[in-house]
């Protein structure tokens, strides 16, 4: 075997594992982005997949600048595209996929003008109704169920989604980082520096590492899907199977106790004064489920009444208790219970959240003087 010159002369290059390579890549990306975004105010929005980040963002947009006609048209196209890919997925995996009608429907070309036609063709496959009814995806995914009810409207070529459609429909996967202006009506809107809500997908890498981007984060919003209190998930950082609320607590802990060595000094100072908001989402589903499944499914040591308010109070205390590592100054978290599908309730909640951030902003300015 020919000796390896590099290793004979300079020694073997140090072994770098995949995690380090990925971490270095994130660092490089962060350095690039840091310069452009330092001048803005951010509200990072975290949460496990499916906790409701996208729905929360859409509510924030609805209650802020709203969606204009062009945005609605584009989102209508996204809804139609999402419907087509779901129908195709279900047809392709069903045992009827060698039926000639299915083959034709699966092979049809689509462009934006013929989306409605494509959906009609797919729905016209003779066994489609049965396949949909038997599909676990359609049975368990409330967004898909909602879209089934929308079919007569979705299959028109000039379909324009309503506010409720925008909240309830399934969309193609969002990019890893999505940002929108956060400007629910109020006195804070006169500020020349707009607040931007930034949603960071969990699988982009360690969410807490992305947090270092948000030096000017005035608050961190952490979304928890409360209705999954009786379920488990694979916690990505340690690959452990954990109860979903406990997994959310772990993640919250790692985010709010992020070591300050991750920040430069200015960012660190700002992060110290940001407030932490925990939004217990899917409160509607949680309340309903609690009548069937006791809260002790999540916390076996819970001895309080099996009622939503008491259970949320207990959760709040558990989240509050997670502070304290790495010298973070003790402070109170703020919590809200939400149903992200409820437009009126979210209007009030978003205003309250902004109000609490605004008050803190004034308080911080006063302290600085
Ligand atoms: N009943 C109920 N459903 C909700 C609520 N919030 C979100 N959903 C539904 O939960 C599902 C997931 O919500 P998304 O907003 O897509 O969640 P996400 O966090 O963006 O999920 P990923 O992008 O997949 O990580 C959707 O079907 C929503 O309609 C809520 O408060 N109550
Ligand atoms: Mg999403």
UniProtKB/TrEMBL annotation:
Keyword RNA-binding set for record: no
The source's superkingdom equals Eukaryota
Please give the SUPFAM superfamilies that the UniProt record associates with this protein: P-loop containing nucleoside triphosphate hydrolases, Transducin (alpha subunit), insertion domain
Q: What protein name does the entry list?
A: Guanine nucleotide binding protein, alpha subunit
GO BP: any one term? adenylate cyclase-modulating G protein-coupled receptor signaling pathway
Name the positions where GTP binds: 281-284
Q: Which organism is it from?
A: Mycena metata
Q: Name one GO cellular component term.
A: heterotrimeric G-protein complex
Pfam families, per database record = G-alpha
Question: Binding of Mg(2+): at which residues?
Answer: 54
* GO MF, any single term: metal ion binding
Q: Which UniProt keywords apply?
A: GTP-binding, Magnesium, Metal-binding, Nucleotide-binding, Transducer
């Amino acid at each position: 075997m020919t000796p390896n010159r590099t290793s004979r002369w300079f020694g073997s290059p140090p072994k770098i594992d995949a995690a380090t390579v990925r971490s270095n890549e994130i660092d490089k990306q962060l350095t690039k982005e840091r310069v452009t975004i330092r001048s803005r105010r951010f509200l990072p929005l975290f949460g496990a997949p499916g906790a409701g980040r996208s729905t929360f963002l859409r509510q924030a947009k609805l209650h802020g600048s709203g969606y204009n006609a062009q945005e609605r048209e584009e989102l209508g196209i996204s809804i139609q595209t999402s419907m087509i890919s779901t129908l195709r997925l279900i047809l392709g995996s069903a045992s009827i996929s060698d039926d000639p009608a299915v083959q034709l429907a699966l092979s049809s070309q689509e462009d934006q003008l013929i989306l409605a036609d494509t959906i009609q063709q797919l729905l016209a496959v003779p066994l489609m109704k049965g396949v949909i009814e038997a599909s676990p995806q359609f049975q368990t995914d409330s967004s898909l169920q909602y879209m089934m009810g929308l079919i007569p409207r979705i299959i028109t070529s000039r379909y324009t989604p309503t506010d409720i459609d925008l909240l309830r429909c399934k969309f193609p996967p969002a990019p890893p980082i999505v940002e929108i202006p956060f400007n629910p009506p109020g006195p804070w809107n006169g500020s020349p520096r707009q607040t931007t809500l930034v949603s960071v997908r969990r699988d982009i890498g360690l969410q807490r590492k992305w947090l270092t981007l948000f030096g000017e984060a005035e608050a961190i919003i952490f979304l928890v899907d409360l209705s999954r209190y009786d379920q488990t998930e694979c916690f990505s950082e340690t690959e452990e199977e954990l109860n979903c609320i406990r997994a959310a607590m772990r993640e919250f802990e790692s985010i709010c106790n992020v070591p300050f060595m991750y920040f430069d000094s200015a960012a660190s100072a700002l992060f110290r004064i940001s407030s932490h908001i925990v939004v217990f989402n899917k409160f509607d589903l949680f309340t309903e489920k609690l009548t069937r499944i006791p809260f002790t499914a999540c916390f076996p040591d819970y001895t309080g009444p099996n009622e939503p308010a008491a259970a949320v109070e207990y959760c709040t205390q558990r989240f509050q208790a997670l502070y304290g590592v790495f010298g973070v100054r003790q402070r109170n978290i703020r919590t809200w219970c939400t149903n992200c599908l409820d437009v009126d309730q979210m209007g009030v909640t978003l205003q309250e959240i902004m109000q609490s951030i605004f008050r803190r902003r004034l308080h911080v300015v006063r302290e600085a003087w």
